[in-house]
């Protein structure tokens, strides 16, 4: 795959001296889903706004499909769909007119079949003749998503698209995302629901204090930074971890019936074989063993803490 979005040494500073972006470099590959994670105020929305041409960078360059977002704004913007955090819609306009108007803004001819498809995908078809001010908050967010999709963008930005909305919308949204992925659309997602990023993203980017901390394939990241945990259920409970096992990273849970062993997947040796041998020597009898991998949320929290 080739990069459809190229960001080179982008900085954004405001008049009061605050630097929201600090030399960001990032290539986003065509057809991928990139989840951009970071705490509040990390620079996620500023970066998206800069790529979309809403905010001009102080320095550096950004291209979308080979078009500079400043010098070639119109051509770059035609390739972009944006679902912003804030709901800003004309309250007295009808849903269908609102969506069709957005398509016309990008110079695209009216396409009733596509409009119906998008509205049905987002469970809005029955609301097509309603005014915006007659809709619930969740329905208004669906309209925002429809407006972002109606001109058939090649790059779609979803800035916290499911924050504070119902489960049904979240399911509809991810069904649409899966269809767009199959069509080769590049999707950049910011979300507070890290389990969503873990479920659908190809790559994970972490941003904090205006700097990209890493961008990596999701599976490789979880393998490289994740810790595994082995939970050992004992046939008989113990009051404390035996002294003979003090050299291992062990904790005791479940009223003394479960030993929890944490180990680094990057290590040459996990220590599991010697642990089990030493447990047997200590007279402990195993009833069951389970292992689990660190979640993406745990990895994200640890990365941000390290760079706090």
UniProtKB/TrEMBL annotation:
<dbReference type="InterPro" id="IPR050763">
    <property type="entry name" value="ABC_transporter_ATP-binding"/>
</dbReference>
<dbReference type="InterPro" id="IPR003593">
    <property type="entry name" value="AAA+_ATPase"/>
</dbReference>
<dbReference type="InterPro" id="IPR027417">
    <property type="entry name" value="P-loop_NTPase"/>
</dbReference>
<dbReference type="InterPro" id="IPR003439">
    <property type="entry name" value="ABC_transporter-like_ATP-bd"/>
</dbReference>
<keyword id="KW-0813">Transport</keyword>
<feature type="domain" description="ABC transporter">
    <location>
        <begin position="5"/>
        <end position="234"/>
    </location>
</feature>
<keyword id="KW-0547">Nucleotide-binding</keyword>
<dbReference type="Pfam" id="PF00005">
    <property type="entry name" value="ABC_tran"/>
</dbReference>
<dbReference type="InterPro" id="IPR017871">
    <property type="entry name" value="ABC_transporter-like_CS"/>
</dbReference>
<protein>
    <submittedName>
        <fullName>ATP-binding cassette domain-containing protein</fullName>
    </submittedName>
</protein>
<dbReference type="GO" id="GO:0016887">
    <property type="term" value="F:ATP hydrolysis activity"/>
</dbReference>
<keyword id="KW-0067">ATP-binding</keyword>
<dbReference type="GO" id="GO:0005524">
    <property type="term" value="F:ATP binding"/>
</dbReference>
